[in-house]
Structures are given as C-alpha cells and as structure tokens.
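Forwarding the complex inputs:
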Amino acid sequence: MLYREAGQFKTSYAADQQLFPIRQDRIGLILLLAVAFLGVPMFASEYWFSAILIPFLIFALAALGLNILTGYAGQLSLGTAAFMAVGAYAAYNFQLRVEGMPILVSFICAGLTAAGVGILFGLPSLRIKGFYLAVATLAAQFFIVWCLTKFPWLSNNSSSGVISAQNIEILGYAFDTPRDKYLLVLAIVVLLALAAKNMVRSTTGRAWMAVRDMDVAASVIGIRLMRTKLLAFAVSSFYCGVAGALYAYCYLGSVEPDGFSLDMSFRILFMVIIGGVGSILGSFLGAAFILLLPIFLDIALPFFAGLFGLPFSSATVSHIQILVFGALIMFFLIVEPHGLARLWQIAKEKLRLWPFPH
Amino acid sequence: MEFFLEVLIGGLLSGVMYALVALGFVLIYKASGVFNFAQGAMVYLAALSVVGIMEWGAPLWLAVILAFAIMTAFGIATEKFVLRKLVNQPPIALFMATIGLTFFIEGLAPMIFGSDPRALDIGIVDEPIPWILDNWNMVISKFDLIAAGVAAVLVTVLALFFQYTRIGRALRAVADDHQAALSIGIPLQHIWAIVWGVAGFVALVAGMMWGARNGVQFALTFTALKALPVLILGGFTSVPGAIVGGLIIGASEKLAEIYIPPVMQDLFGGNFGGIEGWFPYVLALLFLLVRPEGLFGERHIDRV
Amino acid sequence: MKKVFKPAVAAAAVSLAMLSQAAYSAEQFFPIPSYRVGAYGANGQAFYGGFIDYLNYVNMKDKGVNGVTLTWEECETEYNNAKGVECYERMKGKAAQSAGPIHTMSTGISYALIDKSAQDKLPLAMMGYGRTDAVDGSVFPYAFPLVTTYQMQASAIVKFVKDKLGGNLAGKKIVYLYHDSAYGKEAIVALNAEASLNKFELVQIPVAHPGNEQGAQWLKIRQEKPDFVIFWGWGVMNQTALKAAQKVGYPRDKMIGSWWTGSEEDVVPAGEAAKGYMAATWNVAGKQVPVIADIEKVVYGAGKGNLQDKAKIGTVLYNRGVSAAVLSVEAIRKGQDKYGKGKSLNGEQMRWALENLDITEARLKALGATNLLPEIKTSCANHEGSGKVKIQQWDGAKWVPVSDWIEGNKGLIHPLFQASAKQYAKEKGITPRDCSKEK
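Prediction (whole assembly, three chains):
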C-alpha cells in the first residue's frame, strides 16, 4: 500500500527514464543519504567509522567496479585487488611527485591509471571467454603485485616496498579524524554509485548487457565488441582504482603490495555474487554481508561457547569461524543464487501489496 | 649446457607435480562443468587425513585407505548437499560454491587433525641420484622421478577408464550434454558422485606426493595456484592436456626464473627474480591468444 | 580445557565494569590481535599460547603485577591486514584507560597500525618484525621494534658466518635467499652494507610467495657454489628450501636462517632434510628455562593452559611468546615504579615504560628467564634495546644453541634506520622529538 507506483503518471520520456522512476524510491534514497551524511556522523563511534563503515564503503565501491565488469558485461575477473593496488600506488605517486596536486585530482588520476592498466589486461577478453578468462585475469593479479614490489621507484625507494599515504587536505581542510574520512569516502562512493546507476541504463550499459547475454548475438546486431568490452574493463578498473586509493588513504594508511592479495580479489568477488550479480544495490549488500559476517562470528562464537561452557580452545573457535563462513556462503548460494539483491526485489513485490494480501 | 639441461629436466619433473593437481580439476570440469576451486583444499584435506590418522597409530597403508574413504565420502557429500541443489544455476554460482567449500575445508581439516605442519614419510628420500650426479654432474631427484612414474600410471589408468569402461563412457556422455545423457537413462547423480570420488583419489595421490615433498600443512592449498595455468594451457577438459600443460609450464617457468631476471636486470637495474608467481599465467595467457580453448580443449562454436 | 574461555569472558565483563566506574581500575588490559588459522596459524598458536600462558602465570603466581590483575581479549586476524585493523579498532576502546603493548606478530598489520597507534597513543610492540626504522624513537614514539630487528639480525648473522669461515669474508660468496616481500627485502640494505664493508660477494635470490617451489633457485645456488646461504623464509617456504637444498645436495649446516625460519614448525615437516640447519633466534627453546618449566607446573597444573597441544610448551615460538610477555610485564612493573604501584597504566604511561626498559642479567635471573632472551635497555633514541641474537642448530630432534649472544654492527646499521626514519618524518610531516630532552 505504501510502496506503490500506481497514480504516478509519466508525461515525458525524460520522466519515464529517470534514475529512480518511483517516488517512494526517491524518498527512500533521500532518507538513506540523510541518515548516512547526517545521522551516522552524529551517533557512530570511532570503531564504527574506522573498522566497519569506511571499509564497507570502500569494498562496496570495489565490488561495484567488479560488478560492472562481471555482472553487466559478463567478463569474470579475479584480479580486482591488483587494480586496487594500481590505484593506491598511483595516487601515492601523483601526490608525491606532482607538487601541489589536489588530493581529489590524485584520486581521479589514480582511477584513470587503473583504467589504463585495466584496458591492457582486458585485451585478452576479445579472444578468451569464461573461466579461461577468469584464470587469465589472475595473470594481472600476480604480475601487477610483482611489479609493485620490483620497481622501487613506485614506492619511493622504500626498502620494504610499503607506502604510507600522505595526509589528506582539501581546500585547506585536513581530513584526519575517522569521521572526516568517512564523509569523504561516502561522498565519493555515492557519486560514483549514482554514476554507475546512470551508466548501466544508458546505451553503454545496454550494450554491456547484450554482450553479457551473448556476445555473438550482440555483435550481429551491431554492437562493437572490442569497444564495449574494453570500456567495461576501463570503467570497472577506474572504480577499483579509486577504491584502492581510498583503501590506502582513508582506511589503512600504509599499504604493501602483498596486501592486495588474491584472497582480497576473492572476497570482492564474493561480495558481488552474494550481493547479486548485475545489481548496484547488490554490491553494497554483498560488501556489508561479507565484511560483517566474520566480525559477527568472531564476537558471537566465543560468546556462545562461553555461554554453554563448550570445551573449545581459541584455535578451535577460529577454525569454526572459517568453516561456518564457508558453509554460509554455500548455503546462501543454494537458497538464493541470485543474491541478496534478489531478496530485496521479492520484498518490494510483497511491499506493493502490503498490508493487504490481494 | 649441462646447467640448462639440469634446469629443463628439473622443470619438467616439477611440472608433473603440477599436473597431478591439475588432473583433479580436469576430472570434475569434464564431467560436471564445475570449475572446482576446492581442489587445492582437497589436496590438503587428503594429505592431512593421512598424517592425522597415522598419528593416531595406524600404519601408512591403512591411513591411505582410510583417507581414501574420507575423500570419497566427502566427495559424495559435496555432490549431494551442495552441487545437486545448484543444478541449472549459472557456472559462476557453482564456482563460488566451490570457493565456499574451500573455506569449509580449510576450517574443518585442521580442526580435526590439528594445524601443525608435519612431515609425511612415504619411504622415498628426495636426494640426487648419485650415478647421474657422478657421471654427468647433473642433479636429478629420485623422488621426482618416482612422482613422474606415479603420474604416468595415474593418467594411463584414467585415460583407459574414460575410454573403455561403461562408467567412463557414461562420464563422457554426461560431460557432453547433461540433458541428453539424462534422457537416455544415464543416472546423472550417480555419475557425479563417482567423479567426485575419483577426484578425491587424485587429490589423495597429489596430496601425498606434495606432502612428502614439502611437508603436510596449510600451504598445500596453494598448489591449486600452480595448477591453474597448467589447466588453461592444457584445456579444461583434457586429461593428456593436464600432463602436457604441466610439463610445458614446469619447464618454462624454471627456465624463465633462471634466464629472464638477468636480462631484465641489464635493462632496468635491480633484482627481478621471483617471477614464478606470474610467469606461468602470462605464458598461458599468451598461449590462449593463439588457441583460446587451450592445447587440447574442445573447440567451442558459438551459435546465435 | 573447559575454562579456557573464562579469562576472555572475565576480561569482557571487567572492561564493561571499568567503563561504568572509571575510578576503579586495578587491571591492566592487553588487546591481543592473534591468529590461529590459515597458512601461518600453527605459528600463531604457539606464540600467543606462550604469551597468554605467561600473563596467566603472573596472575596466578604473583596475583598480577603489584596487585594489578592482567586481563586480555583476543581477536582473530587471520594474518590479514584489514582484519588486523578491525581487531585493533574493536579493542582500542577498552584499551583507552589501561593498555599493554600490542603484539600483532605480522609485519603487514604492524605497518597498518603504526600511524593509528601513534594517534591513539597506544604502544605497538614489534618484536622481531614490523617497521624496523622505528628503532628511532624520535620519529616513532609509539612503535617498539624491541629486542632486535631484521637488519641487526642480518648483521649478526654475517658476524657469525665470518667466525665460521675463519674470521675473514673477503672474496667469499654468500647467497641471500629471501621471501619476495617487505619482510624479505628489509635485510637487503644491511647485507649490502656488510658486503661492502667485509668485501664478500652477495648474490640475492628472491622466491615468489608462497615459495612452495624452489627448484630453479636451488639449481642456481648449486651453480653459484656459495660459502654460505643466508635464508629469509616464512611458512611453507622454509621446509621447501630445506628439502630443495637436500635435493641439490647443498649442505644444511651452511644454511643459516632468520628467526622466522627457526622454529619446530619450520623444520619438523622437512624431516631428515633439516638436520644440521642453523637459524638465528632472540629466545632460546626448551623447558630447561626455569620460567617455562614453572609455567607448565603452575598454569597447566591448574588446567588453565592456553595450548590445545601441550607438546608445544618449550618450542621456539612458544618461548618467544613467553619472552614477549615477560618484556611486556616488566614494562608494566617499570611504569608502576614511576606512576604508582598497584595502579593500571594508560597507553602514554606504558609508552614511557617501554622506552625506559632496563632488564639486566640479574633481573632475568630473578624472573627465571636466564638466557631466555638477551639483556635489554631501551631509550628514546633506541627502541630496539639489544640487537643481539643467538644462533641455534637443529639436531634432528631439538634446537641447540651453538653461539653466545651476538650483537649486530650497530655503528653500521643504526644510521640506516635514522636515515629511513628521517625520510618518513619528511613524507608525513612529523617533527621528530628531541631525544636529549626525554628522560
């Protein structure tokens, strides 16, 4: 009853094609943003900012990037973390070497650098498909990390290859508290997410989806495969690159190439798949799920074990955490292979009728 | 020249070790179209079961038999509780499920058998063969030769199994087309259970070889990363491809590690060793550009 | 075993109580970001087992430090940087009023925490890992690479090798085989400096992570015929190297590893191949150390031990955990001497204490830790405090010390730290403290 589009007439094409055609969605989004920008900063503790919210937003952005590539354009990639590494190191070098470059411009340049690298590693996608491509993207994962360790220039000749992000200052204002950093990350992520939402309904986005569903058919109806696929790689890597820069500057502070491991790529892929392949909202839901689940298990398991006096040692509890994490992933895939975003859609359908059953 | 040969042979023999792991991937992909990322974790589980059971007092042969039983039971359980429920889902969902399975094993196995790295002694010492060392001044390990022999036997048996037995034929039929196989009365789930059992066996062999070589520990799961380039080079669906791919990857990776870094050092300065992490992948990638379906993979024809 | 969780639950309850009545605080809280699963889980189990056992031991035997009970909370990091940060953030609230030094036993996590811990004024201990130029306390007030660092270790190893090879390294060849990561690369600067000082040839051979395949590297070593191999591995790379050395017939008693390659976990899986292999360490193994034997008696006797597998007591990493705890507890004692006995210390006070540690041979003896670790005296300019290691050799069943404490070449190495710290200060816009004004 509350959530119904009945009565909302569209009188122009522009209105019909707007980003959020349903009024309730618009209101919901505005409320959500208000809470995120105003409510959260007032109430959240430092722990929430620096251990949950900031990584959540950054990983959501990376997942969004991967989702553009995998979910919309249908190209499976296992090298996400490497593109993030490119972003982080590029931002560092732009800040270091270009005198007086504003940090936001550095982030954009970092994204563009990552996009360039992404195009390079996207080239094989013109020939290779499916899991062959997925394994081939591992080449990017290992090669990029190796390069970052091997060329000392990239880490300003640090003996260990570790870089420390410079302080963030925008228009004379120093973003040094967790709350400031959260707001900065939030603003960037919201902008990029809206841009992504806009992009996937455009010609480009539709071309991506056509390629995903069947690339031969897509090329038959006149979509230029090369351009479309490489654009997907570029945009996706741009998002990952910005996420990587934020990861270094707003989250960890110091990063080493090895930190951007295959494991991280997998985690981001998890987010996409648990969240929902081909869904912007899903990237956020997936990031929240994959990030919060281990923390929840870490807190809950010892608590329950202590509650029932179970004879578990700390090592056993840690093992159970991993085990349950794996089991839950399988469980979710079985119960809802289309991801959390699909659950939201079902909920929306239900909401249309609620509270009346018919 | 001697040195070149030594590296080449050492590389070929290492390649056999990669191929052992890659075989497990091929079997499951061939029969069910699932890219089973958990194969590396299965190698770990198998090897850990062997040493774990031996620690409880069983002799090696008994431990191996019991470990085989565990692997078979595990394979069947996986098929029944996970994959069967995901039939008709997109391949990526199945792939993810196997990553979930990887985590599951990585938690379960050390919880039961302990996570300490342990030695696995199967009675073969990893030493240079003195005769070759004396006459040609080359290092060829006895252990590696035996591992190669084991791999050869394994591949032959598997090839014969696929080619000439009823089950083997059924497996190939299922691999070609699930629906068609079902419609002519091949019991699909039965077949899948068998495949997972066989893959478990392959994992056991690989686990024992790798475990005897480097010790039984968590890092056995990383063997999967060595097997993936082998897999794309040889083709996901070809048993001989896994072997040939393994040999190519093993040999070229070792030669590259020896001969490429000095060249790069001349060009850029600095130390460029440690390229084994990515070199096989880039090699496989370049190769794919020429043959997108791998060396022996089935050519895929797209139809609109 | 059943009561393993009690301390954690008690700690949680206690810290809750602390929040409500800040005035009452006769506890000293240790945030422990530990790891017990994954590729390096076995190492973490031994190290953190020893660490927690010693804290328990102090509580049980002496009723804490001057009546201040030691409490702690664990958080599983899986040796993963992002998780380590999450753990740190989760626990730091509880550490606001009383904070023991944080031991992450991970170079990556320490790097990620260096800035944060300085901002939050919580002392970060990096014993034998982490950012080594933090030796310069003027730039890194809250980071403590206690006991010794990779560079000093490398230098000490070179000294040992020099003795072995007859006191002269000129014209000799040493191969440095290392894990191709921040950890492995740290020592290169020191080795290069030593090489030009002692006129030996240094051949660097990196191994890609995870290092479970080293055929090519060892064939190359065979080709080079070095007089010694200095080895910087981690996890599976260690066993693989030993096995590969056997495979090419390189004598293991000419291999000498860093302290992360010299524990039981590293050599046992290699079986016979490990016999004769040497490694550096800053703590000795074995139960003959009185305090270790006493822990077994007191803590495990009461059924409060942290280890699942009692066989790990007295292993290198277990004893390392104990010695890390010994230093932490001694720092608390030192701090209480200044800030009031029977009171808990906050991060700033703890920092002062860590910076003014002075643990003499006599003190070690009183603790029953003679020879467990070297003497330590820290200061603002020297957060390391010792720089000494022992060399131990694996005889097939246990680690046997084969040298006395060896100190690295401080005059050569410490200026490297200062230069690096200076660059860091410049990049980050930090004004270094004036160490002459600290006391």
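Confidence is low (pLDDT under 50) at residues 1-24 of chain C.
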